[in-house]
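Let's practice the habit of predicting before peeking. Look at the sequence and jot down your guess about where helices and strands might fall. Then scroll down.
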Amino acid sequence: MIELRMPALRERGSDIALIAHHALQRHAGEVQCRLKGFKACALRAMQTYAWPGNVRELINRVREAMVMAEGCYISARDLQLEVTDPLQPAGVTIELARREGERAAIERALARNGQRVAQAADELGISRVTLYRLMLRHGLHEARPEAQWNRLALVKGGRDEA
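Done guessing? Here is the structure:
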C-alpha cells in the first residue's frame, strides 16, 4: 500500500490562484457571459481565506461566481469571500459556520435515508432540486449518477437544452 498525503487547499499557497484560473477556463462554456478572469480583490481573498474544504470547494465557488459576476471579472463578492473588516481576526465567521452546518446536515440526512435524495430533501424540508444544488455547492455529488448532474448543470446554468 502506498500512502499519499494531499495537502489541504489552505496549505497549497499559490496553487489556489492556478486552480481557480483552471476552473474558470474549464467551465467557461457553462455561462453566457465571457469572463476574462479575477479582480485583484478576488485573488487576495482566495489566498487569505482559510479554506475548510478541498479543491472541489474552490471549484464550486468559482462556478457559482461565474454565474453571479456582473462584469467581465470575478470579484471577492462574487466568490462570497468579501472581507468587510480587514481588522477582523481570521477564524470562524458566521458564513463559514453556516456552510459547515449546512453540509453536515445534508450529509447526515443522506446517510439516514440511504443516500436517497428525495427522502433526504423531505426530511430537510426543501425541494429535491434545492438539495441537488446544495450537494453540488458542497461537493457532495460523487455518488450521484452523472446524468442527474448534467441535467442540474443545465438548470443551474439557466440554459434549456433538449
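How did you do? The two ends are 46 Å apart (CA to CA).
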